[in-house]
Design goal:
Layout lengths: L14 E5 L9 H8 L4 E7 H6 L3 H10 L4 E8 L10 H12 L7 E6 L1 H13 L5 E6 L2 H5 L6 E6 L2 E8 L4 E5 L8 H6 L2 H10 L1 H9 L1 H5 L3 H21 L16 H10 L6 H18 L5 H13 L22 H10 L5 E6 L2 E5 L4 H15 L7
Parallel strand pairs: 1-8, 2-3, 2-4, 4-5, 5-8
Antiparallel strand pairs: 6-7, 9-10
The chain binds nicotinamide-adenine-dinucleotide and zinc ion.
Zinc ion binds next to α13.
């Protein structure tokens, strides 16, 4: 009998580009990225809503590839939005398309769409041939400022968010700013929550910059929106590449601040509450909880609860008060699910100040309930002294 422990060192290059008009004939960013790999074939998949908002896009993409180093084997417009994560229909469709044009592991699956579309297409690409190279073009605030530069992909199952999924580092992420300006305004504003989140746990200066630019951000002024997206994306990408735990083997998950409640609210509302809006409620709750338990000074809650409404985000949702058959608050089940997702020990990031996260391993349910009461009062226009 014997035992042998081997080390398998693996490193990934995480290519993140910020540009405008990536398919303009003069824009060489995508060509340069594709030329870095050995792949010679590509399949482009565009989310329906994006193709509709940019009627010239399909032609533009076709022409871009006509003179590039890579052969375009197909271009398809497919549905997107959270509904495509509800089952495996889109995943199967993408597998079929990849197989039909014989894409190998060195070929490129290029996906243009919002976070939900990229999650589903990304999962299909990650599992076809054990991983076809994926080039992501995120088209919403949230997917550009957070999920697009991440290394995960998933669809929902068993009433739970992201239950079927994989870690898969994309070959490249191309944040083309122009796409930001066709999203529905509500989606554009709501996606700023991931920038607020990462600022709160990592970068006080960035949080203060958001405070200074609240009016412009709330009005979706293009230059300020783009700067916010870029700063947030870089903070996310730096954490993933330099934080020592890109595939989340440990239990600390700083980028999931405010997400234990958010994921549960999404599931409770059968995803009628979009991810970004659920995260806004979760961030409000955990910021208030951090202050009310004395972990963070009171002004942390004051500033967060002022900022979110100024960005058009609700800080309360009625699902926070929904009860299960035993009369318990259903949202609290989110803590158990979070624990399960982490693989055992509960670790929730709270705040010790603006820009400073702190891991806690126990959550006081009664205090959470009191914070929910405060948020409800504030939301309905009352004042509670926050
Ligand atoms: N993989 C990860 O690490 C990760 C991280 C955070 C969030 N997510 C996931 O991302 C999803 C949310 O992504 P989202 O906020 O981008 O929402 P979304 O993908 O649902 O897009 C929102 C809406 O905007 C439309 N749309 C997208 N881009 C558009 C454009 N440029 N012009 C016009 N319409 C456009 C879509 O069709 C959709 O109706 C959730 O499923 C969430 O779980 C994943
Ligand atoms: Zn999120």
């Amino acid at each position: 009998m014997s035992r042998h422990d081997f080390q398998i060192p693996v490193t990934f290059k995480h290519r993140v580009v910020f540009t405008r008009g990536a398919f303009d004939p003069e824009n060489g960013e995508l060509c340069a990225i594709l030329a870095e790999g050995r792949g010679r074939r590509a399949l482009v998949l565009i989310e329906e809503a994006v193709a509709a908002a940019w009627p010239g896009l399909v032609t533009e993409v076709g022409e871009y590839f006509a003179s590039g180093p890579v052969e375009l084997r197909g271009l398809h417009v497919l549905p997107g939005g959270e509904a495509v994560k509800a089952d495996d229909l889109l995943v199967r469709e993408v597998w079929k398309l990849l197989d039909a044009v014989h894409l190998d592991r060195h070929s490129y699956a290029i996906a243009i769409g919002g976070g939900a579309f990229l999650d589903a297409v990304g999962f299909a690409a990650a599992t076809a041939h054990r991983g076809v190279r994926m080039v992501r073009f995120p088209t919403t605030t949230l997917s550009q400022d957070d999920s697009g530069v991440g290394v995960k992909c998933a669809i929902n199952a068993f009433g739970k968010k992201n239950w079927i999924g994989s870690f898969a580092v994309p070959f490249a992420v191309i944040n083309d700013f122009r796409f930001l300006h066709s999203q529905p305004a509500e989606t554009a504003r709501a996606g700023l929550i991931e920038a607020v989140k990462v600022a709160l746990v990592k970068d006080r200066g960035f949080f203060e910059w958001i405070e200074e630019n609240l009016t412009a951000l709330g009005a979706l002024e293009p230059g300020v929106l783009e700067e916010c997206v870029e700063r947030s994306a870089l903070l996310h990408a730096r954490h993933i590449s330099g934080g020592g735990d890109p595939f989340e083997s440990g239990s600390s998950r700083p980028l999931d601040y405010g997400h234990w409640a958010a994921h549960k609210l999404e599931a409770l509302t059968a995803h009628r509450l979009p991810h970004a809006q659920a995260v806004a409620v979760g961030v409000a709750l955990d910021s208030l909880y951090s202050a009310r338990t004395g972990m963070a000074p009171p002004d942390v809650a004051v500033r967060v609860l002022r900022m979110l409404p100024a960005l058009g985000m609700a800080i309360y949702h009625p699902a926070l008060d929904w009860r299960d058959e035993t009369g318990g608050r259903s949202v609290l089940e989110g803590l158990d699910e979070f624990r399960e997702h982490l693989g055992g020990e509960l670790t929730v990031l709270m705040l010790s100040g603006i820009g400073c996260g702190v891991d806690v391993h126990e959550i006081d349910a009664e205090r959470v309930a009191a914070c929910i009461d405060e948020l409800r009062t504030l939301h309905s226009g009352g004042s509670n002294g926050v």
